[in-house]
## 1
Amino acid sequence: MSFAQILVEAFRSLSANRLRTALTMLGIIIGIASVVLMLSVGDSVRKFIDKELSALGSNMLIVRPGTPTKDGGVRRRAGEAPALTIEDAAALNTLPTLKGAVPMMQGFHQINYGTDNSNTTVLGVVPEVFALRNWTIDSGAGISESDVRSAARVAVIGSKIASQYFYKTDPIGKLIRVDNQPYTVVGVMAGEGSAFDVNDIGDVIMVPITRHPIRMPLPRTVHYFVAQAKDAASLKEAQLDMADVLRDRHRITPGKEDNFVITNLASFAQAGANIGFALSIGLGLIGAISLIVGGIGIMNIMLVSVSERVREIGIRMAIGAKPRHVLTQFLAEAVVMCVVGGAIGTLIAAGGAAAVTATGKFDMVLGVSHVVTAVLFSTAVGLFFGFYPARRASRLLPIECLRQD
């Protein structure tokens, strides 16, 4: 028999018991849908993390005051003064392994313009922060060196704040109040999106670091540094160099705890990848269990089918069919059930991914590799669980089969 004839015969045999065939395929459908969703979730989480990290900038390092804990966190002793200064950041800028390091201040403050007011993040920055963190000015100008030296009351506002407070008017030159103190708007940031220290760049106000509303307990101390390594290969070396410089400047002797913590944003990526992997494993186990259950169901139904069709097998062999022909026929029926079930499962997974993407909160995309994997999985299940019933059918003796009623 040709391949086409085998398929036609397989579909004919399966369509003779449509309800039984559909119920048998249900386990395969659920299993393949779970496997495809597993692959999609894993890839989507990784892409989401890559997208978020690219918004932060590549090869970024964060330095915060405090003592590192075993779980990767930071603790501060009661009454301990902040350990990072603007001069520390200047010292880090001399390292050959760094593109640059900038000091930052951060606080949540009330802002108002006219009768409108809200609370938002206010960052104290230096001019170099825009290039280092890939932030661009849409209109006006950024914070200048003279603004920092003179502690000028100027501000660069995010695009969402510009739209909310200065709808259809040019905000440049207007006064906006931060904690009831007037600041002149000199620029508007371009773009939106989250960062490690703000929820949305569009909702941020930036002022000179020397004019930030928060008054630190010690002069010229700051909340944290943001640094960028020359390249990915020198990231670890840059982290070690930074630690050496800060230990020297803070007079930390060997054996004493550091009063700062350096965080590599690549560790965030690894943590996110671990989460994606855990999700994939969880869904994969569900899919594997469903596939095994579905495969056992297929084996059971195929054994029933062999018992029901003993006389048919005997007639086929009596008129010239060889054992391998019978084996191929029954194996084809098992594979067809699995492949059709896999196709339906893939469509269900695609629908689920589209529904998640439609919420706008998370993008899930099914790639060609996911579909290929589904086809291979379903085919493998059909071959594995269909082989025993097919082999059993091929080993029946024609004379014994013809004696059956």
## 2
Amino acid sequence: MPSLNWSAIDTVLLDMDGTLLDLHFDNHFWLEHLPQRYAEHHGVTRAQADAELLPLFRDHAGQLNWYCLDFWSRELKLSIRDLKREVAHLIALRPDADTFLAALRNAGKRVVLITNAHRDSLSLKMERIELAPYFERLISSHDYGFPKEDPQFWQALHADLGFDPARALFIDDSLPILRSARAFGIGHLLAVREPDSRQGPKDTAEFAAVEDYRALLDGLHP
């Protein structure tokens, strides 16, 4: 686990899915629940549903449409919001994420959630897991019109928040997004070792990774 120099960090930027929340909900929804409901709705087999959906997912990965519930509702002729509610019981906090958030707040750090999730997804998750009070702002990339993978997201975020990138910590489970943040000049970056509790640890390449949020509390004082 990395040790952080908290005296050099003023702003903490945190991803949601796979970082604070277990990615199992999202993986199960997109890879299991949605294809099954799509097959039922359109009268095709599950194998046919997968054959139709997976190329679509690949085509839009990393773009704002990939994260947009309105886009997928139109594209698939299904209410993605309603389908997500069917499996909302799977939304779960990653271990000790709330302990970490409380410690950041007590230490007087500026804490902002930045997610690619659509506002409707964000609202559903905040209904299930009460995290909003820990944050100064809850920002969806849809607010700016660019996903976090895009350099223009970071320019818009900086213009909006007015923070010092060199004195910011950003934690995310996506390597392309972390690389985008690094290119912008975010000074402190951490990946997530096990974003989906059902899939085991993953390779985080050149990035140090969070394995236990309690281990980050060393040196974080009120």
## 3
Amino acid sequence: MSFDLPIGSLDEIEAIKRKNLPLTDAFRSIVLENRPLIDVRAPVEFEKGAFPGAVNLPLMTDEERRLIGIRYKEAGNAEAVALGKQLVGPHKQERVRAWADFINTHPDTWLYCFRGGQRSQIAQAWLEEAGIALPRLKGGYKAFRHFLMEESERISGEADTLIISGRTGTGKTLLIHRMENAVDLEALANHRGSSFGRHITPQPAQIDFEDRLAYALIRHEAAQHHHLVIEHESHNVGRLYIPKPVYDNFLEGGLIILTATMEERVDITFDEYVAHAMDEYRIMFPEQPERHWFDDANAGIDRIRRRLGDERFRQIKQLFAGAFAEQLRSGETEQHKPWIRMLLRDYYDPMYDYQIAKSPIPVLFRGNAGEVIDYVRSREDRH
């Protein structure tokens, strides 16, 4: 249900409309000023997708919205209006108080509903009665979302994109974090972009990922960088996907191949898959974090059994189980490096070499981390 459900009497709603409460469509400033937003949609709508920095302080609960929607369909607008007043009216003060409390700590807040219609107008009017003037987004969620998607496509199409590629464990993400002109797609998607790339915390909703990406691209453009640096990704990052027009624009860039020795790659992968992962598990699972980590990592190996083949799969599983047993016995984790080395050599490397051989993207440069940074800086300096 995407219409703005009515609350109050018809006369009250018309009176609110005549007030000409402040509207704004300064959408770019929301992004660049990191402006907080009050989303007055119902929680079920908010969970499907919301903007960075938005807080859900709904005008109606999910159940209130559901009941009013049913009445609207069955008996029309006037009856829905009457039910809305009956259900929500008694909660007016507590909802105004919640909005006011947030505004007191975030005085630059704006608010929105789905289309910038009745719900956000009512919220504005109630706040005005409490002595608080607050703009609402013109066109609401729908208009701001449309702006973000258009800007993502435009900026990605106009950007001079440099795509950092390289075998697993070369430290592509570490390199991205050292560059001011980079956008970290994996961080936006909360995923490491591999079979073992899951974080304990879930990935955002698809819509949230797209909005985060749009915010990042708008801010990147505003910083006036001459190049957009991203990590080489497939269309999907975990269960999320980069919008096709944006992804196609990214593919118009040039590849930079990051290189590293096998020992460097083993160390980097060990830090990511074992050391840093264990830190996450200790926070999320203070009781038996090692066991939770083992179960998830073991499931990751199981997911790639087909590609490994039975013999390599069996060897890696044995190495992994032995390393974990030693970890439990002594607390030592270095024994995980042999199975990581085998995973890199026998699983990731052949897959990467095949994919890069097929890639139509031109290779601009190859080098280690220091050489790549120097190359990218030299390109920036030439502008």
## 4
Amino acid sequence: MSDVEKKSGRERGEEWWQTGIIEMSPGVIRLRGYEIQDLIGRVSFPAVIWLMLRGELPSEDQAALLGIALGAAVDHGPQAPSIAIARMAATCGVGINSAMASAINVLGDVHGGAGEQALSFYGDIALAIDGGTALGEAVSARLDRFFAGEKGYVPGLGHRFHPVDPRAPRLLELTREFAARGVINGRFADIAEAIEAEVARRKGKRIPLNIDGATAVIYGELGFPPPLTRGLFVLSRSVGILAHAWEQSQQSERNKGPLPREWLWAYTGTPPRPFPGEGEAGE
């Protein structure tokens, strides 16, 4: 008889969804070992996010820097697909949770995933530096591989609306301030700026860091792995999604599509034609 077969039904049930995140029983809620009542009123929301994901409480400075990154990416207006979807869903009469879920579900590789891609890119360079390669050489080698075998834009650079993303310089400035105080070491900021400089040298024009690249710097400095960067972006953008879904739900418009009803799409299919057999002689 196997060990699994020897266990009682209760033991099997308790192990089915075993977790190191939360302990809960009647009258007891503990997050990572901390009583919830001890956390309430003493720990900020960014600090709770850190605790849930990392298992330990951050320092006040670490929580503050995480909150800065989360706050920077909350919204980018109804032209952003996720925000537009939330608003359209709200006009269809669904609940606010459905509107939010509809929006969050489109935060994928193209819309919402660039931060994860940027941090992975930075991580490749950081690994080369740890192996003894100089910063400039590591950046150049990684860009060589990117331009030789990968498609699209260098992750974390450029913006389709902003010549310079107004969020990125401020985030880098704050990252440098936290590094100067010893909260972080600043290596990912160095890497991001070196990438920006090398791409500018190769292309003959500057393609500035964007919000995804700048928040990836902070998440990397704070020790978050790349996949969590996407999840943190979802948490951040959910604030804007909620705000827009709520605002739209307070308006009277119904079944609002992506364009005003007097603007129709461009039809590119077959021109009008008769149904086979209609109008033929002898019919």
